[in-house]
Amino acid sequence: MERFLKGLGLFIALIGVGILSAFAVVALLLRQEEVRMPDLTGQDIVNVIETVAQQGLQLKVDRREAHPTLPRDAVISQSPAPEVGIKKGRQVRVVVSQGPSDTQALKLVGENFRKADMMIRQAGFSPGTVSRVFSDRVERDMVIAQGPEAGNPLEKGSGISLLISAGNKAPLYVMPALTGKKAKEALRIIDRIGLQRRVITRPPGNEETGTDRIVIQQKPGAGSPVARDATVDIVVNR
After folding, report:
1. Measured by CB atoms within 10 angstroms of the end CB, which terminus of the chain is less buried, N or C?
2. Strand, coil or helix: what is 62?
């Protein structure tokens, strides 16, 4: 009897190990069948088909709709979302762009002004008001803002206004007083500021510098605002 009980216990133990092993194998197989959902948004549908097939998934295009920024055949949205776990063989649903609609404002922000103007005309709209503003962040001649904004309803022939970057605003300096200074000193001051200079001698002469030459007149005058690329005229005695 004791031998029988031992044998039965061993049999039950083996069954338990087998069941646990089976569960482990099933869990491993289930994990192996699950893949991480790739990010398909913005990609061309041809590339998406290939990517989905490589992951062992199926693709379904739910619908196509106009989009102000994405080109035709690019994926607008997807389900499941990127990075979500999904089992192989399951279906991935996407919405695909038809490109900008004829009745929607184009996306022009970030484009060069000339290109934006061409895009407006080619789409059947008309250029609206163009304004310029200095910007330390946006390169010169690039579109900073537009009205109406991209994607808003807009009839053919309607105008699109643009705000264009004028680039960095040139720094202004206060013109120092040069009258009464020696010519050499005045020229050093002008050069140190970074301004252009033109020297006029009265009575006429050919030399710009001299130990006894004095500035008798200047333009712009002392205290006037001047830009870095401005030219300063100084009149010196002979």
Report:
1. N
2. strand
| DSSP category for residue 121 | H
Q: Which position has the higher pLDDT, 153 or 61?
A: 61
Can you give the residue range of the structural domain that contains 53?
34-99
State the amino acid at position 136 in one-letter form: D
> Does a structural domain hold residue 184?
yes
CATH at residue 122: 3.30.10.20
**151 and 183, same domain (yes or no):** no
Place of tokens 């619908």: 63
**Contacting residues for 139 by C-beta, under 8 A, at least 6 apart:** 165, 167
Question: Do residues 157 and 189 share a domain?
Answer: no
Q: How confident is the model at residue 204 (pLDDT cuts 50, 70, 90)?
A: low
Which residues does 231 contact at the CB level (< 8 Å), separation at least 6? 195, 196, 197, 198
pLDDT in tens, 86-117: 998 999 999 999 887 778 888 999 999 999 99
- Residues ≥6 apart with Cβ < 8 Å to 201: 207, 213, 235, 236, 237, 238
Q: Does 15 fall in a domain? A: no
Q: How far apart are CA 236 and CA 196, in angstroms?
A: 16
- The residue out of 74, 99, 124 marking a domain boundary is 99
Contact 45, 61 (CB under 8 A): yes
158 φ/ψ sector (left φ>0, alpha ψ -120 to 50, else beta): beta
pTM score:
0.43
pLDDT confidence tier of residue 32, bands split at 50, 70 and 90 = low
Q: Domain check: are 60 and 94 in the same one? A: yes
Q: For the chain, how many structural domains are there in total? A: 3
